[in-house]
Amino acid sequence: MKNSLPRTPGPIGVFDSGYGGLTILNKIREVLPEYDYIYLGDNARAPYGSRSFEIVYKFTLEAVGKLFEMGCHLVILACNTASAKALRSIQMNDLPGIDPARRVLGVIRPTVEGIGNITESRHIGVLATAGTIKSESYPLEIQKLFPDIRVSGVACPMWVPLVENNESQGEGADYFVRKYTDLLLQKDPEIDTVILGCTHYPLLLPKIRQYMPQHIRIVSQGEYVAESLKDYLRRHPEMNAQCTQNGSCFFYTTEAEEKFSESASIFLNQPIGVERISIEKT
User: Fold this and answer.
1) Sheet architecture: strand order including 123-128
2) What is the pLDDT of residue 114?
């Protein structure tokens, strides 16, 4: 891959297994509208949440490689599962051989960095997919920065299907939102801050607020990831120079274009053009 990679500056790549990363992309574009972006959704192989570490790593590496081939020097894994199960391996084991000057960043670390200033009780809750909860990525990252914070997590396997079937505001969502928020508070009644550890979950925010006590702060990732990226580009002018700035955004999917456009409109509230591509390595 290394010898064939474009050397000229290119867009910032944003990858997710499905649609949830569009909530991250939205916030990034609000904060950094001048940059060019490519969004790649591996919708044909989604969801990643229940897959093994090995498979998530393989799929994520293929996606990162594709974005590099498309001209990206910087790729954001706008997916908690990919960030939890693949990011570290790609950063440590693959990037040095592919191109040491390219970078892959995730969504977990930027979210965690802001937590220490928010919680007063030092008790944090995490609502996420089964894969992210099982990986223990949030507790591990939080313990590194804030060893005094206690972390409790609950997997919410029904939330992604609710969002992707455009049922996030329907009556059917109430049962499952209340079920998982109640489980979390039963685990630790002292929680005063809850991280939405899946990029789909902001679309459930009105329902989550309805069933969460008012004093609990709910943290969506988009704003933290966007501000972290802005700070990263400021601190790394060499990478900033490799990111083109024409205000464009292109969308690619491994699934049917019509299906992606229809589902993406749930997240973006606007129609988009999308192209189907393959990222699998044979």
Assistant:
1) 150-155, 123-128, 193-196, 217-219
2) 87
Candidates 72, 156, 198, 243; catalytic one: 198
Active site residue 249: no
- Tell me the per-residue pLDDT of 96-148, one tens digit each, with 9 for 90 and over: 999 999 999 999 999 999 898 899 999 999 999 998 999 999 999 999 999 99
Is 72 annotated as catalytic?
no
Non-local CB neighbours of 219 within 8 Å, separated by 6+ positions: 111, 114, 115, 118, 193, 194, 195, 196
Q: How confident is the model at residue 282 (pLDDT cuts 50, 70, 90)?
A: low
Answer yes or no: pTM beyond 0.90: yes
Hey, what are 1's tokens?
Answer: 């891959």
| Distance separating alpha carbons of residues 236 and 72, to the nearest angstrom | 16
Write out pLDDT tens, residues 7-52. Answer: 999 999 999 998 999 999 999 999 999 999 999 999 999 888 888 9
Q: Which of 107, 2, 8 is nearest to 65 (CA)?
A: 2
**By three-state DSSP, how is residue 79 classified?**
coil
Catalytic residue among 79, 156, 243, 249: 79
Q: Which amino acid is it at 276?
A: R
Q: How far apart are the C-alpha atoms of 205 and 240, rounded to whole Å?
A: 33
